[in-house]
Amino acid sequence: MAKEQNEMSFLDHVEELRWHLVRSTGVILLFSIIAFLMKNLIFNVILFAPKSADFVTYRFFCKVSRFFGTEGLCIEDLPFTFQSLAMAEQFSVHIWTSITAGFILAFPFVIWEFWKFLSPGLYENERKGAKTFIVISSFLFFIGVLFGYYVVTPLSVNFLGNYSISDLVERNIKIGSYISLVRSSVLASGLIFELPIIMFFLTKMGLITPDFLKKYRKHALVIVLILAAIITPPDIISQVIVAIPILILYEVSIFISKIVIKRELKAAQENA
Question: Which residues cross the membrane (predicted)?
Answer without folding.
Answer: 27-49, 93-112, 133-152, 186-207, 219-236, 242-261
